Every structure is written in C-alpha cells, then in structure tokens.
Amino acid sequence: MASTTVVLITGASRGIGKGLLSTYLLRSNHTVIAGLRDPSSPSSQDLDTLPKGEDSRVILVKIDSSSETDARAAVETLKSEHGISKLDIVVANAGISNYRSAPDAAPTPKFVVLSSGAGSISGVDMLAVENTAYGASKAAVNFVTRRIHYENPNLIAFPINPGWLQTDLGNHAAKGAGMAAAPVPIQDGVNGITEQIDKATRAATSGNFITYSGEQLAW
User: Fold this and answer.
1) Which of 94, 147, 185, 196 could form a disulfide with 11, with the two C-beta atoms 3.0–4.6 Å apart?
2) Given 52, 62, 99, 134, which residue is catalytic?
3) Catalytic residue among 99, 138, 150, 212
4) Can 212 be counted among the known catalytic residues?
5) How many whole angstroms separate alpha carbon 142 and alpha carbon 102?
6) 201 CB-contact burial (10 Å; exposed 0-12 / middle 13-18 / buried 19+)
C-alpha cells in the first residue's frame, strides 16, 4: 500500500492557495489539509467537492493567521479526529504562526512560504507599483523562513515568489500600473510552485529565495 503524503496549505479558500490545494488533491494518496479562516463558509465547504485522485482526501481546519491559538488547536484536531501524525509539506500562504510541528515525523519535511519579488530588498528600486507595506511584510517573512532553515537542520525551508499572478490582488495591482491584468495565470504559478517543491532538497534549495521557475532571487 502506497504511503500517504500529507500537505497543509493555509489561505486555501481562493486564489493561489485554492489552486495549490486543487493540484495536490488530484494526486493519488494525498491528504490535503486546508487551513481556513472560516471552514463553515460556503466557499470553504465547496473545497470538499473538488476532484480527487485515488485515495486522496481534503480536511478543513480553522487557521486564522491573526490567531495565536488556531494553529495549535488545528494540530490537536488533526491528531485526535483525523489520525494525522505528520506533515510532509507545509505551504504558508496566509502568514506564519509559531512553527513547531514536529518536522522529524516526516522523512523529508518541507516548509514553503509564498513570498513575493516585492520582498527582495536588493530589487526595491525595480518595483512597478507602490507597495511599501506589502514589500516590507514579505521581506520580514523571508527573514523568518531563512531562520527556520538554520534552526531546523532536518527541514527543507524556503520562500518562493509565485510570480505576478492573476489573482484578485494581483490584477488590482496590475491595473494600478496601467496593465489589463497580471502577467501570470494562476495555474502556471501553481504548476511552477509544485514543481519546485517536488524537487527541493536541503542542499540545493533550503535557505534560498527562489521563483516559481526555479531562479534564485537576491535577498
């Protein structure tokens, strides 16, 4: 019997988070955990109707990035109600909580943060739109993710720039820059991100800032 890969995705109700959830859910033998602000909302409940690969399932849990207790409560719920004892891949798409999820429980655990080119301090003079607060928040999350890399030698941890995606936020920013829409379709970003996660290693990827196409970005 094939082993099950357990993937946790926060901010999974729409946009890139939902795209990643849908893609992983189509793979066989995958348990995909959707971290959601409100699992009871119609948009959250609709996630359970997404197509699934053989022996794959989706679990909805409450994880609000502004809460200091949701992440710990979600871990306890996953253990007690769903028999989840490990997380193979964590994709942080809606903030980072206190990361203490027993990474040694999985053979090659991966912690991936969806960042942005706006978080590159070296590239601050090349930003096409005004986004000081957003860029600063992404630079901070890059720092945290790199520290997680250094503090957890058995973990593969890295931030990834998903591209300027055609999400609601991405298209809004694009229109502010005089463009009709953002340049990267959501599924293209999703495909690139999952490819980079699949092939990520501690030696080659962890602790680096990369794009969805695998290029390294300057901090």
Assistant:
1) 94
2) 134
3) 138
4) no
5) 21
6) exposed
Q: What is the pLDDT of residue 134?
A: 84
Beta-carbon contacts of 176 under 8 Å, excluding residues fewer than 6 positions away, are 129, 130
CA distance linking residue 19 with residue 165, whole number of Å? 11
**Residue entry with tokens 């007690």:** 80
Total-model pTM: 0.89
Closest by CA to 111, choosing from 123, 124, 99, is 99
Query: What is the rounded radius of gyration, in angstroms, for the C-alpha atoms of the chain?
Result: 17
Please state, as a whole number, how many other Cβ atoms lie within 10 Å of the Cβ of residue 203: 7
Query: Residues near 147 by Cβ (< 8 Å), separated by ≥ 6?
Result: none
> Per DSSP, which regions of the chain are E strands?
5-10, 30-36, 57-62, 89-92, 110-114, 156-161, 210-211
Distance CA(136)–CA(139), nearest Å, equals 5
CB 187 within 8 A of CB 26: no
pLDDT in tens, the chain (219 residues): 679 999 999 999 999 999 999 999 999 999 999 999 999 999 999 999 999 999 999 999 999 988 889 999 999 999 999 999 999 999 998 755 454 544 456 778 999 999 998 888 888 777 666 778 888 999 999 999 999 999 999 999 999 999 999 999 889 888 988 899 999 999 999 999 999 999 999 999 999 999 999 999 999
Q: Is 144 helix (H, G, I), strand (E, B) or coil?
A: helix
